[in-house]
Amino acid sequence: MSYRLDKDLALRERAQKVFPAGMYGHMSTTPLPDNYPQFIAKAEGGRIWGVDGYEYIDFLCAYGPNILGYKHPKVEAAVRRQLEQGDCTTGPSPLMLELAEKLVEKGDHANWSLLCKNGSDATNICLMVARAQTGRNTILMAEGTYHGTDPWSSWSKVGITDNARADIITFKYNDCDSLEQAVAKAGDDLAAIIVTPNLHEVFVPQQLVTQEFAQKARQLCNDKGAALILDDVRCSWRFSLGSTWQTLGVLPDLCAMGKTLGNGYALSAVTGNDRFRSGAAECFFTGSYWFSSAAFAASLATMEAIEEENAIERMETAGNQFRAGLADLANGYGFKLDQSGPVQMPLFLFEDDPEYLKGGFFCNEAVKNGVYLHPVHNMFICAEHDKDIVDALDRLDGAFKALKAQFGDG
Ligand SMILES: Cc1ncc(COP(=O)(O)O)c(C=O)c1O
Known about the structure:
Blueprint: H1 6-18, E1 40-44, E2 47-50, E3 55-58, H2 73-85, H3 95-106, E4 112-116, H4 119-134, E5 138-142, E6 168-171, H5 176-186, E7 190-195, H6 211-224, E8 227-231, E9 254-257, E10 268-272, H7 277-282, H8 293-308, H9 311-332, E11 337-340, E12 347-350, H10 357-368, E13 371-372, H11 389-407
The structure holds pyridoxal-5'-phosphate.
Pyridoxal-5'-phosphate binds next to helix 4.
C-alpha cells in the first residue's frame, strides 16, 4: 500500500488560509521533507499517529516535553483529579507550594522557586533577576545558542531591533579563553553568564560540556559577583531532578527549567539561591495562566513517576541501544554517522553530507517506514522508548536500504 498523506494535505491547505505561512514555529513541517505529517491525531507512550492513520515511533517527543511517554496514566489521573477541583482560579491550589518545595529539595543550588509556563518565561526571568540583583546590564551567552524566541536570543532578526541585543556579548561554547575575553569586555557591567548544559544547536554536532569550562564559568561569576544562569530548559529532568550540572558538581545561581516538567502539561520554572532572592523579590513577573493548578498536579506526578519508574536510567539505556543499533545499521550499509550529544538527546548527521542531502533523504524514508526523526535538530528519548528501540531499528533498515539505492556506498 502506498504512503499517502491525503487528509494531512487537505488540512494544510486549510491552514494556509488562517495561519501566516501555513504554520509557524518549530512545529512547522515546511522545512522538513515531504513525507512528514503536519497534523497529529493521537499519541501514546513513545508513538504518535498522523491524521491519515499512520503510526510513527516518535523520537521528537513533542520537541522535548514528552519524557515519561505520552498519556502517562499517573500524570493523566493527577490532572483529571485536579481538573475536577478547578484549574485556573483566583489564587492557586496548595499544589503550587508543594511543587516549589520539591524543586527546592531536589536542586542542590536552590533555595526558592518561581513557576511559569514556557522556557522563554524562565530564561527571561533569570536575566531580570540577575540584573535586579547586580544592578548591571550585560549578559554573556554562547554564540548561536537558543534560549527562546525573545528578541535578546531569537535566532531570527526579523521584527527585532538591534537595541534588543545591545547588552548581549557572545562567547564560544566550551572555549575558556573566549569566555574570559567576553568577561573582560563586559568590564564592570557583567550581570550574568547564561549557558546551556551541553551545546545542542541545529545543523552542527552537539558538544558535551567540559568540566573545565563549567568550572571556569562558575569561577568567573564568583570573581565578578555575577550570576551563573543554567538554561536547563531542554535538558531538565533527563539527567537529574535538580540542575543538570549538579551531576558535575557545578551549581548555578539561577536555573531555568522547562519542557519536561509536566510531561506535556504547560509548566516551566526558575530555581535560585539565596544570593539572588532579594533581586527576585523586587522584580514583577506574572502571567494569566502561570497559577493554573492542573499543570502543578501533572508536574508533581511526573516527578514521582520519574523516580518510581527509574525513568532517567531507562532513557539512558534506550538511548545507548538506539545509538549502537544505528551505528551498526549504518556500517552494514556502508555509511558513517556522526552521533553526538547525550544518548538521551540524540543527533546524528551523515558524514560527507555538507548539504544534509543524505540526512534529509534518510529521514524522509524513515518517516514513511514509521519512524519520526529529525535530520538536523537533536531528538529526545522518553522512558517508554525502551519498548520501541528494537522495532524502530527494524523499521529503519528499510530507510537505509533506500538510502543505499539512492546514494550508493556513502
Ligand atoms: C535551551 C532552551 N532554552 C529556552 C527555550 C525556550 O523554551 P519555550 O519554547 O518553552 O519558550 C528552549 C526551547 O526549545 C530551549 O531549548
